[in-house]
Automatic annotation (TrEMBL):
Sequence ranges assigned to domain Ketoreductase in this UniProt record: 8-195
Xref: InterPro entries: KR_dom, NAD(P)-bd_dom_sf, Sc_DH/Rdtase_CS, SDR_fam
MF terms (GO), sorted A to Z: oxidoreductase activity, acting on the CH-OH group of donors, NAD or NADP as acceptor
Protein's name in the database: FabG-like short-chain dehydrogenase/reductase
Source organism: Secundilactobacillus pentosiphilus
Gene Ontology biological-process annotations: bile acid metabolic process
Length: 249
């Protein structure tokens, strides 16, 4: 199936590798134009634009924890594509695996700044852009994690940030709907996805815990994001979409 997102413009943070790139591939396939951001992987951004075509894709270097960078991304998006239909807050980092009693405040703050404050700043900028350029309509998708549903014992900072993203999504979704603003917000909760984040020597052990019997693919997250970005999901407001191969079933 194609053209489910034809004519739509989407910002995908962390969109040049891993899950973000999988989402971008699905969006390009379905006819969307995409603005991809990353803070450090500039070369990946250039490669993605070359692959998708500069008429369909744009890369902007961005630190999602900085409000000024969000304005830069919005300005570049509107300048090239005239509007914003979909915002996918995908950029994020993991914790360092330290017990909370050994964790420096600076390490905690970095995870919260990127994973949670980055979502807040993105939603704020995205909603305002949709109001200004798209008749106050659109879709915001926050890529949380199963760690936002069930705490990970050695990742208190990551779990807190992803749980915060989940509840932020629900609160803003309800607020927009109750005010009659046609911008819907939902969260997506990936389980184990086959990216560079998963250690190669741990994959066999991890797979044994997954009922589906294999790791997920970045495109598996991309497909649910296609649905949530399309007009098919008009009644999906404040939802939580778990994609984990049955681990939380």
């Amino acid at each position: 199936m194609t053209d489910r997102l034809k004519g739509k413009v989407a910002i995908i943070t962390g969109g040049v590798a891993g899950i973000g790139l999988g989402i971008a591939e699905c969006y390009i396939r379905e006819g969307a134009n995409v603005v991809l951001t990353a803070n450090h992987n500039v070369e990946g951004g250039k490669k993605a634009v070359a692959r998708f075509g500069d008429d369909r894709a744009l890369f902007v270097q961005q630190d999602v924890s900085q409000e000024a960078d969000w304005q830069k991304v919005i300005d570049a998006t509107v300048s090239k594509f005239d509007k914003l239909d979909v915002l996918i807050n995908n950029a994020g980092i993991g914790g360092d695996g330290k017990p909370i009693e050994d964790k420096p405040l600076t390490d905690w703050q970095k995870v919260i700044d990127i994973n949670l404050t980055g979502n807040f700043l993105g939603m704020k900028a995205g909603i305002n852009a949709m109001k200004e350029t798209n008749h106050a309509t659109g879709s915001i998708i926050n890529v949380s994690s199963v760690a936002g549903l069930v705490g990970l014992p050695m990742a208190p900072d990551y779990s807190a940030s992803k749980g915060g993203s989940r509840m932020l999504s629900r609160a803003v979704a309800a607020s927009l709907a109750r005010r009659g603003i046609k911008i819907r917000v939902n969260s997506v909760h990936p389980g184990w996805i086959d990216t560079n984040i998963v250690p190669e020597d741990a994959k066999k052990q991890i797979i044994q815990t997954i009922p589906a019997g294999h790791l997920g693919k970045p495109q598996d997250i991309g497909e649910i994001c296609v649905y949530l970005g399309s007009d098919e999901s008009q009644y999906a407001i404040g939802g939580e979409f778990t994609v984990d191969g049955g681990v939380r079933a």
